[in-house]
């Protein structure tokens, strides 16, 4: 086991004694749980779509988990200034790629969200989410620390442009998460309350408009409110899985609903956990997500750096909201939305982007003893 003395002033020595090791453990637990659940859930999916290697998705997941972990650990070494600079670069590149998907993107289920690269299908919007949260926090903080700099206005322009591109794909779920993060930061920035209320009203109006504009949104909301309004096959199978699992589950690999659940390895992997591991394990997963979010907020509770507070809040809201949407959809507590369960669901771009996002959280919540730390 690698250990560092408290007097070790190397990069890794300083990192070890300043990073939140409890968060590291919690994230490692999610990664391990994800590997177990994908191993259980994905073979039936591979067989159903005609892939000869039944462990294809397991191998792909592990292959992406390694670089995601490396990205997370590498980014966690950065200073707050380094986090801001890295986020700006990633945001600009990812936003350009999102725009490119409208021209050269691959259309899947009526949406252009992916760019095919040899050996990888990349979804640029996944990287826009964490990068935008940090860029917006940086702009809001500059409004306070640099008199005359229109940081809040620039943030509004970037927000509008980013959401506009996401809706053109269309990807309403991603636009909703990004909006929730930005509105949270806008509120925490202490800006005009009337403007906050006005933007909130516009947000609600936008959701109503989306219902009447996007047929797939209309269908999902209608099916959520009235199961007889359309096909609810996946949600019905998901609820059946939770009912079968009961308190302690049927045992790893012993579930049966996954054989008829098309997205058992991705959007509905929480249902596989419910059937095979039971209610107790599902509650432990929920607690782990809650611990990561609350622990992160606790670490910046007494922080004096305005940028660190806003950036950490944005990243944690994004992480927690994505988790809630995935689990809530599986339990039919909200309309279904194709969104991964962080570090547990299968997904290449999502896994890499989560590694980047949580690496920034680990970097921003490190103990600092000076402006350069």
Pick out its properties.
about 375 residues, mainly alpha, 3 strands, about 70% helix, globular
Would you write up a description of this structure?
Its EC number is 2.4.99.28. It is a multi-pass membrane protein. It is an enzyme of class 2 (transferase). The chain crosses the membrane at residues 22-41, 62-80, 86-106, 180-212, 268-294, 306-325, 345-364. Its main location: membrane. The structure is a single chain. The protein is mainly alpha-helical. It has one domain (11-364). The chain contains 14 helices and three strands. The protein has helices at residues 11-18, 21-48, 56-75, 80-104, 125-145, 151-168, 172-188, 193-213, 215-225, 233-245, 269-276, 278-299, 306-330, 348-364; strands at 106-108, 111-117, 120-122. Strands 1-2-3 form a three-stranded antiparallel sheet, covered by helices on one side. A hairpin with a 2-residue loop joins strand 1 and strand 2. Helix 4 packs parallel to helix 6 (151-168). It is globular. The two termini are 26 Å apart. The relative contact order is 0.16.
What's a quick, concise take on this entry?
The chain has 373 residues and is mainly alpha-helical. It is 68% helix and 3% strand. It has helices spanning 11-18, 21-48, 56-75, 80-104, 125-145, 151-168, 172-188, 193-213, 215-225, 233-245, 269-276, 278-299, 306-330, 348-364, and strands at 106-108, 111-117, 120-122.
């Amino acid at each position: 086991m690698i250990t560092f003395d408290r007097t070790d002033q190397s990069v890794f020595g300083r990192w070890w004694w300043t990073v939140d090791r409890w968060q590291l453990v919690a994230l490692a637990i999610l990664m391990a749980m994800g590997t177990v659940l994908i191993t259980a859930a994905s073979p039936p999916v591979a067989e159903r779509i005609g892939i000869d290697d039944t462990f294809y998705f397991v191998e792909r997941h592990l292959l992406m988990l390694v670089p995601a972990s490396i990205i997370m650990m590498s980014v966690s070494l950065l200073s707050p200034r380094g986090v801001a600079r890295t986020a700006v670069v990633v945001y600009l590149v990812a936003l350009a790629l999102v725009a490119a998907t409208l021209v050269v993107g691959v259309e899947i289920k009526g949406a252009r969200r992916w760019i095919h690269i040899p050996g990888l299908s990349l979804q640029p919007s996944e990287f826009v989410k964490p990068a935008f949260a940090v860029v917006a926090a940086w702009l809001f903080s500059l409004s306070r620390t640099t008199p005359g700099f229109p940081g809040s206005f620039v943030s509004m322009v970037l927000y509008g442009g980013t959401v506009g591109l996401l809706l053109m794909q269309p990807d309403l779920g991603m636009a909703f998460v990004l909006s929730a993060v930005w509105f949270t930061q806008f509120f925490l920035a202490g800006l005009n309350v009337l403007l906050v209320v006005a933007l909130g009203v516009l947000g609600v109006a936008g959701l109503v408009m989306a219902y009447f504009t996007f047929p797939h949104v209309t269908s999902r909301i209608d099916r959520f409110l009235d199961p007889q309004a359309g096909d609810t096959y996946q949600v019905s199978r998901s609820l059946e899985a939770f009912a079968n699992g009961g308190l302690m589950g049927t045992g790893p690999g012993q579930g049966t609903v996954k054989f008829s659940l098309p997205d058992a390895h991705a959007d509905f992997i929480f249902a596989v956990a419910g059937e095979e591991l039971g209610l107790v394990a599902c509650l432990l997963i929920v607690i782990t997500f809650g611990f990561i979010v609350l622990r992160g907020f606790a670490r910046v509770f007494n922080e004096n750096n305005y940028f660190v507070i806003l950036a950490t809040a944005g990243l944690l809201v994004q992480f927690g909201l994505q988790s809630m949407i995935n689990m809530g959809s599986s339990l039919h507590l909200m309309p279904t939305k194709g969104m991964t369960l962080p570090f547990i669901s299968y997904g290449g771009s999502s896994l890499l982007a989560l590694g980047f996002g949580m690496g920034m959280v680990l970097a921003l919540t490190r103990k600092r003893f000076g402006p350069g730390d």
